[in-house]
Amino acid sequence: MKNLIATLCLLVTAAGVASGQTQVEPDTALRMLNAQQQQFEKGVVKVADNVYTAVGFHGANTSMIVGTDGVIIVDTLFGPTSAAKAAEAFRQYSDQPVKAIIYTHSHGDHIGGASAFVGDEKPDIYGTETFGSAEGVNKAVDPVKQKRNIRQFGRNLSSSEIINRGVAPAGTDDGDRGKGFLPPTVTVPSSGLKTTIAGVEIEFHIGPGETDDAMFIWLPKEKVLLAGDNFYSSFPNLYAIRGTAYRDVLNWSESVGKMAALKPHVVVPGHTMPIQGQEAATTALTDYSEAIRSVYDQTVRGINAGKGPDQLAHEVKLPEHLKDKPYLIEFYGSVPHAVRAIYAGLLGWYDGNPTTLNPLEPKVKAQKIAKLAGGINKLTEQMNAALANQDYQWALELSEHLKWLDDGDRKLARTVKIEALRELAAREYNAPNRNYYLSYANELESGQLSELWF
């Protein structure tokens, strides 16, 4: 891991990466994402005399705590196929029966494989009072969320296109999603729980963050913290571009701060490699909490100064002393996306500027932009020039206007949009952005999308 940290720090420094900007030269983006691969290299990591974490068997981690007459499993991966492989790997360290299963939260990649760990003896299964609320209540938009989920995670990308998912490997076995899920049988109260399972002292702490139903697990004797998805080695996904309800950023920062206060000797993330050593683990959690809070505070100050989300998304940065931390590089979450989510979560869509209160519909705006440019031909020339000059975001935006024009070359607009998306993807070290750009480009090229390109 020391080599990974050193590699990432060198690449970040060489690229001049600034918080909030995840576009770099293509070769640098590629090297950074390939270096991040080491964070989910498949294997079992011993984090204490009786605690083992299986990394890389699917997207998330699963852990085994060995007790006197049984073991405890924390999180169970995506489905029984991947979970069975992790369970088999654990058996070289203990063949005792599973006495308990703990779900840190209800995201599918942490709960879908429970059946693979269970034998004849039925274990207690622990979840919070609010278990199941991870994705909010927006079931009505599940059809479009499923499409966006596929794009964010690059599920339809070829092996030559996808590198990884930021905090998870690509090419995971997803065909049995959730088929091993077993519902909780023991509810952890909102005040938390301290108990002994299989002779192991264990504490359950409620810790809302990435989800409202999250908790973290503390082993006071071993000084091991199992953080769930409130911590992993990347700037956190305070908003997921697949589409999520507002994730309470302030709660997330406070929950990670409570973890840091325990001064763990090891922190086991929900994804990526454990961080071992009291100083390293505690510092990582302290920095993580501060980074989240800083983005929140800067956004709130900007909101109260009358700034809109578009401006703030370009202005808010991580503090200077945090921007190069390897566990805060924007491989998965993104500062600009977080800023926009905080804005919408606190105030809704309207930015307070009467200009944006009732904006022109896209087709009318496109017509006026074309007129301003000197006509459709001039607009088309500007789009082509932007592409030729490697001004890919501007080319993308101009193609979006051209597609609305009845007399415009929609086929050319589509071609330019596809090329601009792929060029932006090549420069992205933020994996969800990269995967989304490439997935959307492929859908456009194959004709899967409507004339509106939704």
UniProtKB/TrEMBL annotation:
Q: What is its EC number?
A: 3.1.6.-
Q: Name one GO biological process term.
A: dodecyl sulfate metabolic process
- Where is the signal peptide, in residue numbers? 1-20
Domain Metallo-beta-lactamase residue range list:
59-271
Top-tier EC class: hydrolase
- Native species: Rhodopirellula baltica (strain DSM 10527 / NCIMB 13988 / SH1)
* A Pfam short name: Alkyl_sulf_dimr
What are the GO MF terms of this UniProt record?
A: linear primary-alkylsulfatase activity; protein dimerization activity
Stated name of the protein: Alkyl sulfatase or beta-lactamase
Chain segments annotated as transmembrane: none
Q: Keyword annotations for this protein?
A: Hydrolase, Signal
Highest taxon in the source lineage? Bacteria
